[in-house]
Design a protein that fits this description.
Radius of gyration: 17 Å
Structural class: mainly beta
Oligomer: single chain
Order of helices and strands: EEEEEEEHEEEEEEEHE
Number of helices: 2
Strand content: 25-35%
Shape: globular
Number of strands: 15
Strand order of the largest sheet: 3-4-8-9-7-6
Largest sheet: 6 strands, mixed
Number of domains: 1
Amino acid sequence: MFTGESSRFFELYLDIPEQDDAPPIGWFPGDAVDADGHYYTVGAFGQGTYFESIPYVVLKNTRIFTQPDDFAFKAASFTPVVSRRFADLVCKTDPTAVQRIPVAFLDTDITGFEILNVIRIIQGIDYERSGHISRFDANLEPDRGGEIKSIIDLKIRSDVPQDYHIFRLQDWRLPVIVSAHLKALIEASGFTGVSFLPC
């Protein structure tokens, strides 16, 4: 697990086993579709959008290697799929920052999981302290030209309010950021599948 206890914020990350003979993760939640079978876009739950009147999301093509962890990312995205107990803790700590969307699995008998749709989006990148920032090339991807593609050694601004315990970033919505306080609660609860990258 990543360390860095002096950090105020951490990026939620998968806990990848280091053993050569171990599966890389316990499971891999599949693609998301609505009640009518229409696919959600890959980043649908990463834009801070609150979904009205959505009773549940169906996940297709879920793969299980050992057993479902409390924390995972949905297929091809950084959308957290978490146990109900994990979601309970997050919502108790920061109830206005997330939307909980129940998950139904099309091809397994797994129950008790939810998509954690992070709806708080803030201007939180510390551009002076962060490392190399890569941007999409407007010539190659005109629809995304100039947008942030990746950041090496992301740093969060020091003026983020103390009571913001989970959020995404306005200029780079890929990572989910949690406070040191929420990190400590998650670790104390013994949740599986989750790790933290200090930022």
